[in-house]
Design brief:
Length: about 350
């Protein structure tokens, strides 16, 4: 039998297990579909994180002990995780799937008892699964990092009593959410490191005839994240949002038609670049280039300078090889384009 604290009743363990599996089977496809909806994005994000806490004092267990918090258990490092997903320019944030491994191991204080037996050790294993958002504020090398995750864990717990007898919690699905805030440092254009504080709210794992385990608490996290863009065959470079207007007409004066959509993307990309959101700017410049007609006038007056802007953003996010390719493309279109040639020589 398993306790249902919300209703004050007891249910067969099998009923809980089946319902947990059903909920898990529904949640994972929803998380996957959410990220798949953003697949047109070309900037991919991969991150690794380690989470820990400062353990609080664990008092000896008694038959009346109803619950233990994760913060009371050891070791201080309790979770490692992996995140992957896509940067969504419209949100100005990363949309990520998250998983990992959470664990707890240790000896119970002397004199601990579960039921009438002496309890010696505890253990917990869990696999967190969730969907998260990461947003960065302030256009500096050190940025304010804010995040939110929602999902749950597949979790199992056990207590070992004297003589080797174990009380187990069974594998279950529990809901969980967390908020985080901290600082992120851009180590290189494509790599950043973050230190943050997380607040986690979760559903306790019910362990029959033993204390439940509650994941709710405050923790500390450290992460490394990298951003990669898929090769697209066209790169860019020069001061974002600026052009050398000596030989080339201002691209906002080229005729109407389907250029309107491209112009809107270019203006938005210029604004993103000025705010140093180069990942979003790169995505917008590339999409604008894909909309431009191939006639000679449009290519010379619009595509060439936009290739230079695109190259600048590519340099900022660490894609110098693609930037050089974009500049060569600009010179192929407009051989006398001085800004493109100067920037290519500088790379």
């Amino acid at each position: 039998m398993t306790r249902d604290r919300a209703r004050g009743v007891r249910r067969p363990r099998g009923q809980w297990y089946v319902s947990d599996v059903i909920r898990f089977a529904l949640v994972v496809p929803l998380l996957t579909a959410s990220v798949a909806a953003a697949t047109p994005r070309e900037t991919m994000v991969v991150a690794l994180e380690a989470l820990g806490h400062v353990p609080t004092t664990l008092a000896p267990l008694t038959p009346d002990t109803a619950e233990l918090g994760l913060a009371q258990l050891g070791p201080p490092l309790h979770e490692v995780g992996a995140l992957w997903g896509l940067h969504v320019a419209e949100l100005g944030a990363d949309l990520l799937l998250r998983t990992g491994y959470r664990f707890a191991r240790g000896a119970l204080p002397e004199g601990s008892r579960i039921g009438s037996a002496v309890a010696e050790r505890y253990g917990l294993d869990a696999v967190p699964l969730g969907l998260g958002l990461r947003s960065r504020l302030l256009p500096f090398r050190v940025q304010l990092l804010l995040g939110f995750d929602a999902g749950g864990t597949i979790v199992h717990a056990r207590y070992t009593r004297a003589g080797g007898d174990a009380v187990r919690g069974g594998w279950s699905w529990t809901w969980e959410g967390r908020l985080l805030a901290g600082a992120e440092l851009a180590v290189w254009e494509w790599l950043s490191a973050a230190l943050y504080v997380e607040g986690r709210l979760g559903q306790a794992l019910v362990v029959e005839r033993a204390p439940d385990i509650d994941p709710t608490g405050i923790g500390i996290g450290l992460s490394l994240s990298a951003r990669f863009a898929r090769p697209t065959g066209a790169p860019a470079s020069a001061e974002p949002g600026t052009h050398d207007g000596t030989d080339l007409k201002e691209y906002s004066t080229v005729g109407p038609s389907r250029l309107d959509q491209a112009f809107a993307l270019i203006r938005e990309a210029d604004e993103k670049a000025k705010r140093r959101d180069f990942i979003a700017a790169e995505d917008l410049y590339r999409r604008a280039l894909g909309l431009l007609p191939l006639d000679a006038e449009t290519q010379r007056n619009v595509a060439a300078p936009v290739h230079v802007d695109w190259a600048r953003t590519l340099v900022e996010i660490g894609r110098s090889a693609d930037a050089r390719a974009a500049l060569r493309k600009a010179l192929e279109i407009a051989p006398d384009f001085a800004a493109a040639r100067q920037m290519l020589e500088g790379l």
